[in-house]
């Protein structure tokens, strides 16, 4: 499943809902293979930015380059981007195996290859033994692992995760955080992880961007942001200011 990791570059991105501009000039480069966190309070624009990369929502102004190709104006299905949401949204009437196979069938992958790809994706998330269960027979954590398997099985260029652990209880969240990171390292996929939890960003991210009001307040490694917050907002949000 391993492919060459790609860079994500965002240039002067603006996005409005009606007359309200909610992304106000975003510029960033995410290196190939990075685990990158978008961190910020509720309403800061994290999901909007992630969805703009995936191709959902209003068309933005500016450029979004994935592996050097500007995808900002392409429909979602031409972007080869994989996204996992807070709610797992598995097909309730389909087995785990069928849920994971669905995207491959849609893409007309040869039948003989589907079985092996589905099994290796389920193996990757440790759920091969539950392949024939229905989603309702799984725990929340297991359902989210299936959602991950379903996303990576189609071999996206980048992995976008919008608060994927927020529905899980605290101890499971910490365990899944580690699993997610180890999965990402195995695949080497350029990954963006959205969270409002600074601890979650701090313990996983190679680098992160702190957003507020649709503007990136600071980017850097967790260490850099904690040691030298760029402004009072960042310091307060990371809990380093009094
Ligand atoms: P976050 O994910 O950081 O909580 P969002 O990206 O969801 O923030 O929202 C950023 C801003 O955009 C908020 O002010 C929100 O109210 C607004 N917004 C998000 N989605 C819509 C929408 N579909 N229509 C109008 N405004 C929206
Ligand atoms: Mg959000």
TrEMBL record:
Which keywords annotate this record? ATP-binding, Hydrolase, Nucleotide-binding, Transport
The UniProt record lists the keyword Cell cycle: no
Q: What is its EC number?
A: 3.6.3.31
A GO molecular function held by the record = ATP binding
- The main location is membrane
Which residues are in the ABC transporter domain?
8-238
Topology with respect to the bilayer: Peripheral membrane protein
Compartments in which it is found? Cell inner membrane
GO CC, sorted alphabetically, is: ATP-binding cassette (ABC) transporter complex
Say which family it is in. Belongs to the ABC transporter superfamily.
Q: Would you tell me the protein name for this molecule?
A: Spermidine/putrescine import ATP-binding protein PotA
> Whose protein is this, by species?
Roseibium aggregatum
């Amino acid at each position: 499943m391993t492919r060459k990791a790609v860079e994500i570059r965002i240039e002067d991105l603006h996005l409005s809902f009606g007359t309200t501009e909610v992304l106000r000039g975003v510029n960033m480069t995410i290196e190939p293979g990075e685990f990158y966190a978008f961190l910020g309070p509720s309403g800061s624009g994290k999901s909007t930015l992630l969805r703009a990369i995936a191709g959902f929502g209003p068309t933005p102004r500016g450029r979004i380059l994935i592996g050097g190709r500007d995808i900002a104006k392409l429909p979602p299905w031409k972007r080869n981007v994989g996204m996992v949401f807070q709610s797992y949204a598995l097909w309730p009437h389909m087995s785990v195996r069928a849920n994971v196979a669905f995207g491959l069938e849609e893409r007309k992958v040869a039948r003989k290859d589907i079985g092996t790809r589905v099994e290796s994706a389920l193996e990757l998330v440790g759920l091969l033994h539950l392949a024939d269960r229905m989603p309702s027979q799984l725990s929340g954590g297991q359902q989210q692992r299936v959602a991950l398997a379903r996303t990576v099985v189609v071999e996206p260029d980048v992995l976008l995760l919008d608060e994927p652990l927020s529905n899980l209880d605290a101890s499971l969240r910490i365990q899944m955080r580690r699993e997610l990171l180890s999965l990402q390292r195995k695949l080497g996929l350029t990954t963006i992880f959205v969270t409002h939890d600074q601890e979650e960003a701090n313990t996983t991210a190679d680098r992160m961007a702190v957003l507020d009001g649709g503007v990136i307040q600071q980017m850097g490694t967790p260490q850099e942001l904690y040691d030298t917050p760029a402004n009072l907002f960042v310091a307060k949000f990371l809990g380093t200011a009094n």
